[in-house]
Design the sequence.
């Protein structure tokens, strides 16, 4: 096995931050609770971490294959990871023991920011096939992004560029969130030249935004059609006797909507789940405003 790490990333995507003493101590304290070690992991900054084969193999298919197959790592008990940020490898190793990791950043060092720490941890989980680490890092990343407030918009293009350069198109856990967030905030992001470069560079990201835009346009068109139906009915309906209250109950989310006066619409738009359904899919009827008792739907006057 010539190398256990993926090919070199471009300089702009690699994180060269040296791990802080607090982060190193956190990993040492985690590992030392499990007794004598039998595996050495080497990082790009020359660091060596002595861990347990059994622990890392249980968490990662990559480690399991490397250490239990016909590769040099299985015989030497040493795995070199020269192409990965040392902080990401520390987060990965700590996660294999604790199912969580500590985020430490060093003020003044390039790329040493919480969002970048979690993003690199996610990429490490993708490369070394640790799905639970990806889910955990995604939660930490998204919570950090929401904590940044308006300043977080400038981070989105950087995060997209790093993630899409470092993970395959089939890795959807964090990509789906970034695409959904970008679409919801598209008006603000389109004013950022760096985001426009990302749109032009990554075809899969651009296609995702286009699909979301088309789906939203179709939803708005369906809503416009329904509003036109309602307006026509209100203009042309005939009232008989005292006013009644007609209700509809959505077949999807059971949201209850009422309309003043007798009504029978071809389509009904639900403000609860934002779906438009044919009226025959809905439960509907009316109430007598004086007695509060329900009346048969066949008693409702229609135009």
Sequence:
């Amino acid at each position: 096995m010539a190398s256990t790490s993926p090919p070199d990333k471009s300089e702009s995507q690699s994180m060269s931050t040296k791990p802080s003493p607090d982060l190193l101590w956190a990993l040492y304290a985690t590992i030392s609770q499990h007794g004598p070690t039998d595996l050495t992991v080497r990082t790009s900054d020359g660091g060596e971490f002595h861990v347990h084969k059994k622990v890392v193999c249980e968490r990662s298919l990559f480690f399991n294959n490397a250490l239990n197959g016909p590769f040099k790592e299985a015989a030497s008990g040493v795995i070199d990871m020269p192409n990965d940020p040392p902080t990401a490898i520390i987060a990965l190793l700590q996660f294999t023991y604790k199912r969580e990791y500590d985020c430490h950043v060093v003020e003044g060092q390039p790329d040493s920011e919480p969002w970048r720490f979690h993003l690199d941890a996610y990429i490490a989980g993708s490369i070394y096939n640790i799905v639970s680490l990806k889910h955990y890092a995604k939660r930490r990343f998204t919570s950090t992004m929401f904590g940044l407030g308006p300043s977080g918009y400038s981070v989105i293009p950087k995060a997209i560029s790093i993630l899409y350069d470092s993970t395959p198109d089939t890795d959807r856990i964090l990509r789906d969130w970034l695409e959904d967030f970008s679409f919801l905030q598209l008006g603000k992001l389109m004013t950022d030249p760096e985001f426009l470069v990302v749109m032009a560079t990554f075809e899969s990201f651009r296609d995702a935004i286009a699909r979301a835009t088309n789906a939203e346009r179709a939803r708005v068109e369906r809503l416009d059609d329904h509003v036109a139906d309602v307006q026509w009915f209100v203009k042309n309906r005939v009232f008989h006797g005292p006013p009644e209250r007609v209700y509809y109950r959505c077949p999807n989310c059971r949201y209850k909507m009422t309309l003043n006066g007798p009504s029978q619409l071809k389509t009904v738009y639900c403000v609860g789940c934002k779906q438009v359904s044919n009226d025959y899919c809905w439960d509907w009827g009316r109430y007598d405003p004086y007695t509060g008792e329900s009346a048969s739907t066949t008693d409702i006057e229609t135009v």
In short: Residues 216-299 form one domain.
